[in-house]
Amino acid sequence: MTRPIHRLTARQVTALGPGVHSDGGGLYLQVTVGADGNLCRSWLFKYELDGKRREMGLGPTYTIALAEAREQARGHRRQLLSGISPLAIRQAQHAERLASQAERARTVKFDWCFEQCLAAHEDGWRNAEHRKQWESSVRTYALPMLGSLPVDEITTPHIIKVLEPIWKTKPETASRVRGRVERVLAWATVRGFRSGDNPARWRNHLQEMFPARGKIAPTKPHAALPYTDMPALLSELNAIDHPAARALKFVTVTCARTDEALGATWDEFDLIAKVWTIPGSRTKNKKEHRVPLSDLALEILGVPTSDRVFPIGEIAMRMMLKRVRSGITVHGLRSSFRDWASERTNYPTHIAELCLAHSIGSKVERAYHRSDLFDKRRRLMAEWAAWCSRPVPTGATVTALARVPAVSP
After folding, report:
1. How many CB atoms lie within 10 A of CB 1?
2. How confident is residue 406, by pLDDT bands cut at 50, 70 and 90?
């Protein structure tokens, strides 16, 4: 005689093929074939109440053992004896859980999410200066309005109120603040503290409210120093005993980006091979970049005195450059090199572009062009260093320099 309940054995639970197999009392073993071809085993409880049939999953067999599934089924049968639907109970519990999450979200403020978002991305900042600017802009312009608001209650009007006072007067800052607020709200959404669309998003949203940044203040290239003035600049920096002056000379002769130089540590340098290897985690394109070091670059480096090669911040470099040459930018020094390479040498354009760590060609071309042309770049950088270290005539205010003979790469 077949037993009304507990029909399955532990062996059958692991051995039965595809189908729905009854254990009795409304408990079933469901065996299906997964997308990968493997068998998936789970428990079902089926019942009828008020003339309606229902079924609910109890969990996979690798989590819910046979004995535990039977105990759950027994509890559900007892609920049915009292006229209670097990599925309705589960749905009510789920609704209560969602309500609890919503209540918790109402107590989570934007300023707390901001701090947590900062901490979550602690290892992803390009450098300490970037983190400082990111944090400072949000604290200055967003927190006074958004800080004490429940993060789930922040809407588009709140974002507009943050951005309107600065969008036309400080478009670059306003654009960055918007993007950073969007990122904090996205973090809060992923964490379950808010739901719905991100009110700080730009595309098809805030772009309808504010004019594009470029239409308010057209992008201007970084102010650059004429390459003919480079020898005079290095001569003036040589007379200043300060880490910022040394850092400026180094980025000038290596064409490195500011954050790459300021974040450099001594373990990135091979002084014997005369190579500085910048790891991909610190480059703009996230790819490792080898920088050939000229004799002048090695002289500027000197000897290690701390873990960081240049233990200063970006502001110190800017102030030093302003002291010796107002009106130009540190990044513009890279443009000075590019102008010099085009006008005073015969090196192909892509060699100079690689010295600046720029991507060259299309994706297909880059896929086949795997060499970084290091030897050719070393020769070009050596000639650039020689140009920058040319003697400056005493008392000259404008230096007229003869054209450097063309050198074949």
Report:
1. 3
2. very low
